[in-house]
Amino acid sequence: MSFQLFREIQADLARVEKELSNYMDTDHPTLTAASGHLLYAGGKRLRPAFVLLAGRFHNYSFERLLPLAVTMEMIHMATLVHDDVIDESETRRGTPTVRARWGNRVSMHAGDHLFARSLLLIAEMNNPIIARVLAETSVEMCEGEIQQMATAFDVEQNFRDYLYRIKRKTALLLSASCQLGAVAVDAPPYMIRALKWYGYHLGMAFQVTDDILDLEADEAKLGKPIGSDLRQGIMTLPVLEAIAQVQDPKLKTLLAKQEKSEREVQEAIRIIKQTDAIARSHRVAQLYLAKAKAELSRLPNIPARDSMAMIADFIGRRSY
Amino acid sequence: MSFQLFREIQADLARVEKELSNYMDTDHPTLTAASGHLLYAGGKRLRPAFVLLAGRFHNYSFERLLPLAVTMEMIHMATLVHDDVIDESETRRGTPTVRARWGNRVSMHAGDHLFARSLLLIAEMNNPIIARVLAETSVEMCEGEIQQMATAFDVEQNFRDYLYRIKRKTALLLSASCQLGAVAVDAPPYMIRALKWYGYHLGMAFQVTDDILDLEADEAKLGKPIGSDLRQGIMTLPVLEAIAQVQDPKLKTLLAKQEKSEREVQEAIRIIKQTDAIARSHRVAQLYLAKAKAELSRLPNIPARDSMAMIADFIGRRSY
């Protein structure tokens, strides 16, 4: 995501980055290395950006927003590093992760530590709404992960199963970032609500787009091999759209297979691409983006609102 | 630990048990099974018991103590299930754990879910002291785990390294259980302080005893093979005492070896038992128990205080 999108909050976002970097510094060299690896591997810092942008709609206070912005990114990082902890059969895939370099134990403890540190920040903020929303979000995010495991390789699941998962995987934390940024600056309820729903719909669109890219992105830009959802048995929207259209049982057989050869993965992608599954998925993403922008129209016309609209447009066009 | 010790709070502890059991019931069958497995595998429920006993010293209110008691046990269970997530090289040891039955991913998500659920309980209690103490405790517990990994197989570490670890592994959560039970019923500061330190010293003694038992318990009673710390390279107090006494470099060589044969483990235990390392470790445990009981003397003479003294005596004598 281009840095330009965040011009509105560029300087403060840099201060968040510095604070995050300080947070990675611990007394434990391995932990510092693992967390640092995770931080410097990049990421769009979309959650901190949303915290700051949401804070613009009322009495902007960087001091009040900073711990929240750091917390949101740390929770996000904790989920990423825990998602790396996978069963032995899957250990040889993908780019070097914390797990690949330091093993499951370090990944798990690094994630636990990030999460525990964010608890400390939450406790220090001493705001019952922030504490409750982040606790609820954490529970739901876990349930999404569990559901993803439970439905892996299940070709009979429906679109609702998919929406249940991506809400928890992506939309809720982005929604909480927007919502709580407004809560932290004591914005009025109507703003909090509009920002919460903007974040939710934007997050749904973001994940749908992510799932499309897993089938058709340029691997070099994406930074990981395409088809990784297929290999893990995660049935994404374009996959479910294709299942609904293709009569030939071969696609289902390929998708349900737990250990696919590289040829089988490519064959499944080829069949999916022969349908209009990807075009349909793009339309779903556009619908969510339209809903996100409709929420923005309820908010005051300030530069932060333009930035949020631009982020929505960017997600509609993103190719990596 | 005999149920008799908790006579004082027996009925309420049974209600905590029921509530814990309700908490294990989720919409996700695998998660419910994994968490239930963990819960019904037993455990002494020492943390909930301490919450309730501590609450006896002031205006006892089961309703205020219940969410805290459940939270403490769930945090404990979360750490247990995460400790099961180990590297591939260690997957074939020990009794059936959640990880052994359902794999690393389920273990990790079950632990995350238990922890997130406990966050929700913490948020609902809406008590900034409870939130802060549990956040700080969680961070320190993670750091203890990380330190345990970092010092594994290191025969040059000192007693302070050991005390650093067991404080975080065991003492802090027991201490927080006692402290926060008193906080939840608005006990006066002197009581909170005495209970906190009782829990801390008792916890240190508990872990020292645990570490002695790993070398000399009856395996059938202990429920796991002895010597498991040695296999994992964890240098416990009796091991460090033996290292300090034995001149023969053979012991260090054995202990530093990452993959020990069963004969090597037994040989190391034999050498350690030839020293007075275990007797010295028992004396350290007794010192901590004396300190724990000294804290009790600051508290009103009520039946809960007798129960806490009996728990200290029991730990001094326990053989499994």
UniProtKB/TrEMBL annotation, chains A, B:
GO molecular function terms listed in the Swiss-Prot or TrEMBL record: metal ion binding; prenyltransferase activity
One Pfam family from the record: polyprenyl_synt
InterPro entries, alphabetized: Isoprenoid_synthase_dom_sf (IPR008949), Polyprenyl_synt (IPR000092), Polyprenyl_synt_CS (IPR033749)
Origin superkingdom: Bacteria
Keyword Magnesium recorded: yes
Cofactor(s) the protein needs: Mg(2+)
Entry's Gene Ontology BP terms: isoprenoid biosynthetic process
Keywords: Magnesium, Metal-binding, Transferase
Family from the record: Belongs to the FPP/GGPP synthase family.
Descriptive protein name: Hep2
Organism: Heliophilum fasciatum
Lineage, highest ranks first: Bacteria, Bacillati, Bacillota, Clostridia, Eubacteriales
